[in-house]
Amino acid sequence: MKAFFLFCSGVHKGFIDRSPSEVNKYAGIGATVFFTGLLAFFSAAFAFFTVFKSYTIAVFLGVIWGLMIFNLDRYIVSSIKKKDNFFRQFTMAFPRLIFACLIAIVISKPLELKLFESEIKAELVSMEQEKYRSQEDLVRQRFLPEQEVLRADISALESGLQKSETYKNSLLSEALKEADGTGGSLRRNMGPIYRLKMQEAEQAELTFDNEVARIQPQIDEKKTLLAKSEEQLSTTLEELKLIPLDGFAARLDALGNISNSKASIFWASIFITLLFVALETAPIFVKLISEKGPLDYVQNKHESYYVFSHDLALHHLADKKAYYTKTQQFVTNKIIEEENKVFTEAVQNEITQTKDRIIDFAFYKNWKKKLGEITKSV
């Protein structure tokens, strides 16, 4: 187990064998790295199970995620080396600390969802009801404007008929009161005043009948349209289903709502995140605040020897390159000198041959002239 935790810490086996006093420290660092990866596995497995609803897929993807986090933590811890200057070392470790904090937040959120699962389920029910109500409101908003217009039209038409009927009934009542002496002239007779009022009542009744014949079909048509719209609204509302919210994003929203409404959940979530941040950054801080140990000196000695060997090899290569360059330059100069000698000799030979040809030509020209003179004298 100790050898496994040493492997988790990323320390070199040869170095730790030469520094036995550092074994416990690096075994503790490796254990922290291992358990961080283990928690990352549980966190990812729960998150993937909420998405795929399959234990096999959740475990498989959780193992991959846990191994990835384990490898990242192991790399982050093993890449930090002790320096003589603390501020320089902290500057170099700062990006690794930021990265470790991000990993801690990613790991902590799914585990928070599991810890507050009962509260989240209650909030999810409330969110489902709220979403259903919002869908119902959207459906009603689609039908209600049309229904309100139809009801207003029906009310206006019926109000017109009601006024006409009231006017007709009032005229008929006045005529009857004039006939029985309870109104009008207060004389019981069916004289000219009665006949005049009765004629007005009959005219109003005729007008009312005409309005009923004209308006009632419109009222019936609009009532039919209203009933059809109400039936469509009722059918659409019945077809609405309560969509269950059980996904990862919905759970995060529910956790956010609970945190905003309850201070205890908010602070608990903050402290859980801080706990994982502390767990994730603990190996880095251990390396930062601890004094230089034997392992650091062994590692620095090995790296210094490697750097020295590398510089020495580069120096030899530079010397070889300089020697080769000078040799090539010397050979090139010699070749140029020899070529100049050959060229100079060739030019001198050419000049000599040219001079000889010029002399021979002058002799031939003089001989030809003398031969001409002799021939001429003969």
Query: What is the percentage of strand-forming residues?
Result: under 5%
Distance between the termini: 135 Å
Spans of at least 5 consecutive residues whose pLDDT stays below 50 are none
Largest sheet: none
Output mean pLDDT: 76
What is the overall number of helices? 10
The proportion of residues forming helix, as a percent range, comes to over 70%
Description:
With 378 residues, the protein is mainly alpha-helical. It folds into three domains: 2-115 and 262-292, no CATH class; 137-239; 293-357. Helix content is 88%, strand content 0%. The chain contains ten helices and no strands. It has helices spanning 2-9, 13-17, 23-52, 55-78, 86-115, 117-180, 192-239, 248-261, 263-289, 294-377. It is elongated. The N and C termini lie far apart (135 Å). The model has no long low-confidence stretch (mean pLDDT 76).
Care to give the gist of this entry?
By secondary structure, the chain is mostly helical. The protein has ten helices and no strands. It folds into three domains: 145 residues, no CATH class; 103 residues; 65 residues.
